[in-house]
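# step 3/5: fold
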Amino acid sequence: MSRGAHATCVAGLAALALWSLPALAGAAPTSPTRYSVAGGCYSLAPSAGGPAIAQASRLRFKATDLGSYMLYGTEADFLAAAGDAVVRAAQPTPAADWVVEGATGSFTLSPRSAADQVLAIGGSGLALVPRSAAGAGAP
């Protein structure tokens, strides 16, 4: 992905078991849906507020199915699940396919390969936590 393509990235998706996404610049004043983020470029940030998460900044949401996306990074890499961790993968794999769920403007992301886990903020960045524990360590 070229640097020019990232100039249109929106700082905002959001983190933990619940991610929020502010309206896109220049878009209608409606909140995005889990489908309208397709093809967009976003940075994840805590839904409770705070700065974007460095490990999840400037990600292009490439649709793989309705409501599912590969999160393509600035280094031509993909955000992927690896056990309880979240890593940058050089190649797309099933572990890099994320399901977006939730209400308009606030979302939960879970790897399609591990639907019982959700994306969360861990001690040193992003992590995966059991869906049943989601929100326990919310920022």
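# step 4/5: annotate
Residues 3-6 form the longest helix (4 residues).
# step 5/5: archive (pending)
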